[in-house]
Specification:
Length: about 280
């Protein structure tokens, strides 16, 4: 297998007949079904050989139903789903019981609670942090989905759970279109000093505006890669959100151009090796 074969660490699937996605009504370009068959056709042409499904912020009551549906999808064999990063609600009092159930599912390899769509205070409560610390016993990582302005919040959360492994999504969602280099760059480098945090170079074309260029994008990707180092970064497509910035093929092509000067070992780690290790695939 090629060293440049890709394991996509960030795939979203949407099935509105099966699940409810309250946020989709506020995102018209994405408000439709996004099936695995559509993704798979494009992904195979790009050298993507497998994917991790990332939770899609379904209605709270359907969190476990989403995982059940994905298990069924994986069994159909349309495309290799290597694992599921499941939704969770660490703010809930019954989180420990939920965690036991979810962690017992063979496809679940990690968890995420999007923090950019809730009040900042949510992750600062002792209930949230105490529950999050339980992930250390399961050795399952937690994806940090925060806006650039919330990176200090992410740092506080990581410091409150030093034995938990974290993965920062989307390079910390920088405002590339608006040129918001600082304080993003400084805060991202600060977060990267925590050895229990890795980062996804995932789907950042969605933040570049309509006229982003490769040279502009390179600056943000390079800073993330240099801050975390070659052993703590992995690649994610963020399909279908990446369609807002040109689509999966465009993002793969941009990535390959940006990292063309890296060593073969560094590219292999970014594309597949690090993700396989982080999520124990």
């Amino acid at each position: 297998m090629s060293d440049d074969a890709i394991l996509d660490s960030h795939l979203h699937l949407v099935n509105r007949a099966r699940l409810e996605y309250p946020w989709l009504s506020g995102a018209p370009p994405l408000d439709r079904d996004w099936p695995l068959e559509t993704y798979a056709q494009e992904a195979r042409r790009l050298g993507i050989t497998g994917a991790l499904h990332m939770e899609v912020d379904v209605a709270d009551a359907q969190i476990e139903a989403e995982t059940q549906w994905l298990e069924e999808v994986a069994q159909e064999g349309v495309f290799p789903l290597k694992g599921v990063i499941a939704a969770c609600r660490p703010e809930a009092e019954d989180f420990p019981e939920f965690l036991d159930r979810a962690a017992s599912r063979s496809l679940v390899v990690g968890f995420r609670r999007p923090l950019h769509v809730v009040p900042d205070a949510l992750s600062q409560t002792e209930t949230f942090r105490a529950n999050l610390r339980l992930l250390a016993d399961k050795d399952l990582p937690f994806d940090l989905c925060v806006l650039a302005r919330q990176l200090p919040l992410a740092i506080d959360l990581v410091d409150a759970a030093p034995n938990v492994r974290f993965v920062l999504d989307h390079c910390g969602v920088p405002d590339i279109a608006g040129g918001g280099w600082e304080p993003w760059a400084e805060a991202l480098a600060d977060l990267a000093r925590r050895p229990n945090v890795s980062a996804k170079i995932s789907g950042v074309i969605a933040y570049g505006g309509e006229d982003w260029t490769l040279d502009e994008l390179r600056r943000w990707v390079d800073h993330t890669a240099q801050s975390f180092g070659p052993e703590r970064i992995c690649w994610g497509g963020d399909w279908p959100v990446c369609t807002l910035g040109g689509g999966l093929s465009t993002w793969v092509a941009a990535t390959r151009a940006i990292v063309s000067g890296w060593s073969g070992d560094e590219r292999a780690a970014l594309y597949k090796g690090n993700a396989a290790r982080i999520w124990k695939l």
